[in-house]
Amino acid sequence: MNVDQAELQKFAELAHKWWDKNSEFKPLHEINPLRLNYIDEHAGLAGKRVLDVGCGGGILSESMSERGAEVTGIDLGEKALKVAKLHQYESSAKVDYRLISVEELAQESPESFDIVTCMEMLEHVPDPAAIVRACARLTKPGGKVFFSTINRNPKAYLFAVLGAEYVLNLLPRGTHEYEKFIKPSELAGWARAAGLDVIASKGMGYNPLTKRYKLNNDVSVNYILQTVK
To answer: Which positions are annotated as binding S-adenosyl-L-methionine (predicted)?
Structure first.
């Protein structure tokens, strides 16, 4: 199975904090509106069947459901999914959460989704190219697939590891491994090999003075890749 058990354990230990906006997951809550609006603007969530790969505690899944999408959220983190399901009782969000790998779901339900999202996950798995292939297989012809991850270069190490984890304490130390970061050219290559056309890429920046995130054209650290099948 395409999973790193150490990564699963790392997030399992924090699972109870997924919806605490002042916890280690604060950055995910703060960037979620940016990701949500970008997806909605370019794919139109209302009435679409959407798959959120590596959904964790359901932050993006719930917000896409609130925009009118029929959302399925999948993850291999059992504790995170339990938190996601519990939060549904408070929010009344309608999301179908499943404990299943994206590769297994691709065999079970190919070409079933209008939109597939895979956010902040590729840098945590042993074989990210396999995830990209499975996401492509799950997408209907003409459907959109959105990936977000971290570039691999000295600047990304400085900002995403040293800065975020050791200086600003935005993330727990050890959240990321630099060797697993992915260059946009690598991700674009995997996407094209899987039958996806790359439409656009956007960077995601953080201003430590204003403590705000924003989308920009600088993909040197965090970035989103938009593709179509």
So the answer is: 35, 54, 75, 119
Strands 139-150 and 113-119, bridge-based pairing: parallel
Q: Is 64 annotated as a binding residue?
A: no
54 annotated as a binding-site residue: yes
Helix axes 184-193, 128-138, angle to 10 degrees: 50
C-alpha 98/C-alpha 72 separation (Å) is 7
Task: Judge whether 229 and 142 are in contact, CB under 8 Å.
Answer: yes
- Tens digit of pLDDT for each residue in 145-192? 999 999 999 887 787 666 555 445 556 565 667 788 999 999 999 999
* Domain, as residue range, for 79: 1-33+43-52+69-111
Q: Tell me, yes or no, whether 199 lies in a domain.
A: no
Whether residue 58 is annotated as binding a ligand: the answer is no
Could you give the percent of the chain with pLDDT greater than 70? Answer: 92
Record the tokens describing residue 80, joined without a space. 């995170």
Torsion over CA: 40, 149, 171, 58 (sign)? positive
Domains held by the chain: number:
1
75 assigned ligand-binding residue? yes
Q: What are the backbone angles phi and psi of residue 95, rounded to the nearest 5°?
A: -130, 135
Q: What is the CATH number of the domain that holds 15?
A: 3.40.50.150
pLDDT tens digits, residue range 59-109? 999 999 999 999 999 999 999 999 999 999 899 999 999 999 999 999 999
